[in-house]
Amino acid sequence: MCECVNDLQMDLVTPRNASLSGFYKRSFAYYTIKERLPKILTQSIDILVRNKDEITKEYGNEAKEELKHVIGEFSKLKYEVQTNKVMRNITSNAKDVDVYNNFFAKQANVTYFTGVWLHAECYMYRRIREIFELTEYLKSYDPFRIQKQEAFNTSQTAILQLSKYLMSTLNENDNGHDVKGEFIKLLKMNLWGNQCDLSFSGGVVEDCSDWFQILDSLQPNIVSDHSEQIWLAVSNTNATSRIIDIILDNSGYELFTDLCLADFLISHKFARTIRIYVKNMPWFVSDVTKNDFEWTLQELANSNETDVNKLGKRWLHYVKQKVWVIVENDFFTLPHDYSLMAQEAPELYKQLGEAKLVIFKGDLNYRKLLGEKNWDPTIPCKVALQGFAPSKIAALRTVKCQLICGLEPGVAEALSEKDPNWQETGKYGVIQFCDD
Ligand code: F6P
Ligand code: MG
Question: Rounded distance, CA 263 to CA 318, Å?
């Protein structure tokens, strides 16, 4: 069924309190489904075509024919998105498939532009995974691996600078450390690391600039800053839990900033264990999978730069000693927002509840926290979370779509006046905290 795009969409902005959807033509959701998602699929096709010899070398000659089929499936998927087809059942036999199919069965005949944007976008990435699941030789192929590795390689200057900074903060021979100041600086580096996102740049690898030098000048761009509250939660010596959870977002430089923060928390004994949640399949182009995580640590440990090399080796040791525990959970690649976690994934909800603090990284996690709703920007974070309160929560996100909470009155209006597209640029950020 083709629900032709322009006939159905309403020439409206997203109404207040409505779910973001491609249905509203004057929204970033519409623009994403119309332009950005097809662009990401085209980019993937190009990469597959350009790298077919390498792929055949790695996966064997039999994979060559399959690759042609895979490329064809990507083109079909792109056509389905562009012509607003119904989101059909996933047909592989992976263990999350029933959950996906039941979820969409409840919204009979929902299409890319008429459904909730979050659902449509997650579904597209799940369909990409399905393409490979249904092959014989390319089952484990990650279509975004090349871009992710390239992004890491182009961030070496920024990685080196941050390595030096982290090492200097951990130098016990130096007296008079301002631990709180160092923590907050790392938190902010971590926030801006979220600008390095390949789904936002349309799969294009960009040089992640050196925020280290310009960190202070970016302060006005943090439109809601609860760093102090996060510091109090982290440094609270009365907390019974010694676990901090980090729900990761992107590979490359952002992951490096996450790991620096995780090391700082361990080295200063703010936590005994950091549980690090990765995606269980290639997701939103640059999101971290277990393979990406392991590859990154190995690359760091092989670096010729002393500080980078030391950190890489230390972090491999943390993983071996289970000081850092890598967690994969299907829930993070479902289309569900987090208000559904307690009901749909009660064990995960309980697990997050064991942590002293759960840090959510990035825009997609933020959308799931806020239930993909166009809230009044001044609504308290607690209300926007709609009952999701497994533990104390921190959310670090550069703003890449039209949804936000917890702003002071007048802030959103002033920003809109200055820059009407301020929520679509990734130039602004939030560091927010919500108590349990
Ligand atoms: O909102 C814009 C967007 O590119 C989405 O398409 C996607 O949800 C998100 O940003 C990815 O950002 P992040 O990597 O920060 O989750
Ligand atoms: Mg991401």
Answer: 9
> How far, in Å, is the centroid of ligand 1 from the Cα of 168?
33
Helix (H, G, I), strand (E, B) or coil at 211: helix
> Please, what's the largest Cα pairwise distance for the chain?
69
pLDDT in tens, 7-49: 566 789 999 999 999 999 999 999 999 999 999 999 999 999 9
Tokens of 10: 């309403």
Choose which residue among 144, 195, 197, 428 to substitute to test ligand 1 binding: the one with the highest number of ligand atoms within 8 A of its C-beta. Answer: 197
CA of 44 relative to ligand 2 center, distance in Å: 16
- Locate 374 and state its tokens: 């166009």
What is the secondary structure of 313-378 as a DSSP string?
HHHHHHHHTTSEEEEE-GGGGSS--GGGHHHH-HHHHHHHHTSSEEEEEHHHHHHHHTTTB---TT
Near ion ligand 2, which residues have CB within 5 Å?
249-250, 284, 287
CA of 346 to the centre of ligand 2 (A): 24
Q: Where does ligand 1 bind, in terms of residues with CB under 6 Å?
A: 32, 121, 194, 197, 199-200, 249-250, 284, 362-364, 367, 400-401
Query: CA angle at residue 146 from 62 to 165, to 5 degrees?
Result: 150
Does this model's pTM top 0.90? My answer is yes
Report CA-CA distances (Å) from 359 to 181, 184, 249, 275, 391: 19, 14, 11, 10, 10
Q: How far is the CA of 194 from the centre of ligand 2 (A)?
A: 8
Nearest CA to ligand 1 atom 4: 200
